[in-house]
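Methods — Computational structure assignment.
A single polypeptide chain was analysed. Its primary sequence is given first, followed by the predicted tertiary structure written as structure tokens.
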Amino acid sequence: MNIIGMSVIALVILIFLLILAAKGIKTVRPYEKGLIERLGKFRREVDSGLHLIIPFFDRMIKVDMREHVIDVPPQEVITKDNVVVAVDAVIYYEVSDAFKVVYNVKNFESAAIKLAQTNLRNVIGELELDQTLTSRERVNAKLREVLDEATDKWGVRITRVELKKIDPPKDITDAMSQQMKAERTKRAAILEAEGIKQSKILEAEGQKKSAILRAEGQAAAIEKMADAQKYKLQIEAEGQALAIMKVFDAIHSGNPTPDLLTVKYLEALGTIANGKSTKIFLPFETSGVLSSLGAIGEMFKKIENDKGEEKA
């Protein structure tokens, strides 16, 4: 055998070895599971990493364990009150058992779509249109529960279901728009009336408080003025008392005669009589003064008699 023939044989062997390596060395990613079959029979399940299998006898099926999403096409659904609406949804799921999802269902995504459409009709059919439009969370939760239970035997867990849109017919949409507009107009009128009512109440309360504060101010002013007048009278009374005491001391220090005291009493009585009082209260000593008045009168009579004798 020449060199060329040997080189061809070596090349063939190298290619064969490369094919064996490609067939016998398998890598599994961190988010995957590997199912190994030998001659059509399941042998084992392997995790992520490098694995060796027997070429041409073994086969590895890789299953992606990450979360997936399925888009459910729009379909017409009849509500409980016989309104036809177009509904579509999305389904999020993740594989919980690689063996079941491969060997228990032929095409999981197609089966899940058909299952979702069927249960979507059942769930929406139990609700009226208004409930359908306002109860998305309720519909999502019900669908997820039903689908998760149905797909459990396929090794799949439904994580959530979301309704993308719910489209009622155009005439229903127009009627709902008019109803919403009327409702908003009604709410605006109620809010305006409520605002006017609150404004009137606040204005009345303001006037009430203003009147109360004004009356309290006037009362406080009257009280202050009365206190000032009282203080003035007290000061004047104290001044007068002090003046009387000084006069009393001055009179007693001057040792006045009874006649002088009588004259001062008379002057004082004249001053008192000039006042506006209709009644005059005389001190107890007035009786003594009146006796002195008699003596003074006798004295004046005696003086007049003496003057008459001298003229005669």
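Note: The beta strands are 25-28, 32-38, 41-46, 49-52, 58-64, 68-78, 84-95, 156-167.
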